[in-house]
User: Which sequence fits this backbone?
């Protein structure tokens, strides 16, 4: 039988060599001049554990094909070269000539549009092979090879070809095999973003949820029943991963051809043909990372696979909690840095280049994208972090969700709020989607959600982290800070962004000294259960060797009393023109936010001036509270997470920030660490605060407290 092999690389070269050795008339055709020249000069050599042999057969470049091609044409070019291969065959096929696609991906429509559907058959080829040099192909194993008619008929020509092609068997379910291969191919693309072997990427437990989700996403799109092959059973994906690990460990081909294209050959992959036609977020994220590597923006490394795993958690865990505004595929970042490859979410009130600054408001979310990153986001990228998602928030960080946008839910108890305004950031960290997220804090908007969700929430010293590129609420009180899975994670982000972080561990010269804000614990507005949990936590710190001393928190209450006048006057200065100005659009605000801002309009500016003067009087006394102690300690919130965030002009809303607000007014650094659970399983937080500028000291003590309470 006469064969023309169009694309004589890994698959085409292997099949063509076996056919030639069996005595068939084979013409090799390839676009690589060096490969063609080597075959012409020395023959095509098959090497590897399966067999070792060389065949001598003619080889040509596409321009050297005869004007009329008869017999069987085996198309084995890369998927993205399908259109070019079809054009090579246009008008060239002799009557009775047959075309067989041996490609990965769903390329039948491209080929049949030129050669005719009646001439075309398709193959499923799963053995591993690689071109290891001009004229040399390594065959790594023997695996499933199926050939079928596109309409599923078992024809005479199908049986004849199956009897000739090496390892081939005829099938009436070729599309089922091809769709199963689409799913397996998506797994190979997923693993190829790293430098792990196929077996290692499939076996690593941290990537198992990702691999299963990618396969499910592809298989859900199949219009036919996907067929099992070589350990891959679409009906048993968990078992399939185990079996595929064993199959690939037994193959001489350790890495996929996709990886070799990216990391060795530095050439385009088949991503657009294989993953491009698919829908679904995960394959989209994989495709974007592959393209970024092709563009030279990234290299194949495990950090890419860790990012894909974060995307999987974002979809599976973050979106049901209404914590996600948008995913940011293949984010640009520095290739090195202290946060290299760390996935970090950003509250959608902070500028991220290419995305609108959404502010928790549907009008703004549909606005123009930011032209550049806010400085804090640029610093994250410069530190090597993957800024991969925008987190949801309460509208304009003002204390209430917009009625058209769902409020972020609490991962610990989804029937409760994640808190505000940085609730989306807290929920993503608490759900385990990412180790850290940026938030903002004007009266407790980082620390309150942290306490509700059981994570760490850090409000640094005022001005330490830039608020440029952040929608203000009250510029005097606004802070950018971090929500994190641990104190160490929060410290790592702060250090990367500011150069300030916890000092290396050392044996303390004396016990940690905690100033307990006694009147906060005695405050009648504090839920008795939270008071008891906080006292128990303090007892545990005492047992751990820390020294406790009571402090009179009257000055903190005085600072808290200053917050409302400062916030309301400044909030009206920020948003007033949007409500009453010449281009006013009051209807774009949610009703609760609009009510708050109209209330703010009634506050005379002189009240802010008086509050700022009072703040200046109280700051020295606030500093003296820390004389003789390392940090102040007290409850983080007066109650555990409610069902919904109470508006700040309600009784519950007015007291939500009584313990957090003083440190916004004073500008001192403050952090919340988890300290227990209520009988209903809701997290409770302990708040620590240090002197203005002593963020590093605060983090050192917080780390010790975290260990003692673990």
Assistant:
């Amino acid at each position: 039988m006469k064969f023309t092999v169009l694309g004589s690389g890994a698959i085409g070269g292997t099949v063509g060599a076996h056919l030639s050795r069996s005595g068939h008339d084979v013409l090799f055709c390839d676009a690589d001049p060096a490969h063609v020249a080597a075959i012409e000069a020395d023959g095509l050599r098959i090497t590897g554990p399966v067999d070792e042999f060389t065949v001598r057969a003619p080889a040509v470049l596409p321009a050297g094909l005869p004007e009329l091609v008869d017999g069987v044409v085996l198309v084995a070019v890369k998927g993205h070269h399908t259109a070019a291969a079809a054009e090579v065959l246009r008008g060239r096929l002799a009557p009775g000539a047959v075309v067989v696609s041996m490609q990965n991906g769903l390329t039948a429509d491209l080929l049949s549009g030129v050669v005719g559907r009646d001439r075309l058959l398709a193959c499923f080829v799963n053995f591993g092979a690689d071109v290891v040099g001009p004229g040399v192909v390594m065959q790594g194993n023997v695996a499933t090879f199926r050939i079928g008619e596109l309409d599923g008929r078992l024809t005479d020509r199908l049986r004849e070809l199956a009897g000739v092609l090496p390892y081939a068997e005829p099938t009436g379910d070729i599309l089922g095999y091809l769709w199963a291969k689409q799913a397996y191919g998506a797994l190979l693309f997923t693993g190829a973003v790293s430098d792990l072997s196929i077996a290692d990427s499939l076996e690593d437990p941290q990537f198992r949820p990702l691999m299963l989700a990618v396969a499910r996403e592809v298989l859900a799109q199949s219009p036919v029943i996907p067929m099992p092959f070589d350990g891959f059973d679409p009906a048993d994906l968990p078992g399939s991963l185990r079996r595929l690990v064993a199959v690939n460990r037994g193959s001489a081909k350790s890495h996929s051809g996709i990886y070799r294209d990216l990391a060795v050959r530095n050439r385009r992959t088949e991503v657009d043909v294989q993953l491009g036609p698919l829908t679904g977020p995960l394959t989209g994220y994989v495709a974007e990372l592959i393209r970024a590597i092709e563009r030279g923006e990234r290299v194949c490394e495990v950090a890419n696979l860790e990012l894909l795993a974060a995307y999987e958690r974002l979809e599976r865990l973050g979106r049901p909690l209404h914590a996600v505004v948008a995913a940011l595929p293949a984010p640009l970042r520095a290739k090195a840095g202290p946060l290299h490859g760390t996935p970090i979410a950003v509250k959608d009130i902070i500028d991220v280049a290419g995305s609108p600054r959404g502010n928790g408001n549907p009008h703004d979310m549909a606005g123009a994208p930011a032209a550049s990153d806010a400085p804090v986001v640029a610093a994250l990228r410069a530190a090597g972090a993957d800024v991969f998602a925008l987190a949801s928030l309460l509208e304009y960080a003002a204390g209430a969700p917009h009625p058209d946008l769902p409020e972020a839910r609490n991962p610990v108890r989804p029937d409760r709020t994640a808190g505000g305004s940085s609730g989306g950031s807290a929920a993503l960290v608490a759900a385990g989607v990412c180790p850290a997220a940026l938030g903002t804090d004007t009266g407790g908007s980082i620390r309150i959600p942290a306490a509700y969700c059981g994570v760490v929430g850090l409000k640094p010293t005022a001005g330490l982290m830039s608020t440029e590129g952040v929608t203000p609420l009250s510029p005097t009180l606004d802070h950018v800070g971090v929500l994190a899975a641990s104190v160490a994670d929060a410290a790592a982000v702060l250090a990367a962004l500011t150069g300030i972080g916890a000092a290396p561990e050392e044996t303390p010269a004396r016990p940690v000294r905690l100033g307990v804000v006694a009147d906060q614990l005695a405050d009648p507005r504090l839920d008795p259960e939270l008071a008891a949990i906080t006292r128990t936590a303090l007892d545990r710190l005492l047992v751990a060797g820390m020294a406790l001393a009571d402090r009179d928190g009257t000055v903190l209450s005085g600072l808290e009393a200053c917050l409302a006048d400062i916030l309301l006057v400044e909030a009206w200065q920020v948003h007033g023109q949007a409500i009453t100005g010449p281009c006013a659009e009051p209807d774009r605000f949610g009703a609760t936010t609009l009510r708050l801002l109209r209330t703010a309009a009634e506050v005379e500016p002189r009240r802010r001036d008086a509050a700022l003067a009072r703040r200046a009087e109280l700051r020295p006394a606030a500093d003296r509270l820390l004389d003789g102690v390392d940090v102040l300690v007290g409850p983080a919130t007066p109650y555990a997470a409610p069902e919904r965030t109470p508006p700040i002009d309600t009784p519950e809303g007015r007291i939500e920030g009584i313990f957090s607000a003083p440190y916004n007014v004073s500008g001192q650094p403050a952090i919340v660490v988890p300290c227990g659970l209520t009988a209903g399983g809701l997290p409770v937080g302990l708040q620590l605060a240090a002197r203005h500028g002593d963020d590093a000291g605060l983090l050192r003590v917080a780390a010790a407290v975290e260990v003692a309470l673990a």
User: Anything to note?
Assistant: The chain has four domains: 2-172, 174-323, 324-498, 513-709. The radius of gyration is 32 Å. The longest strand covers residues 670-677.
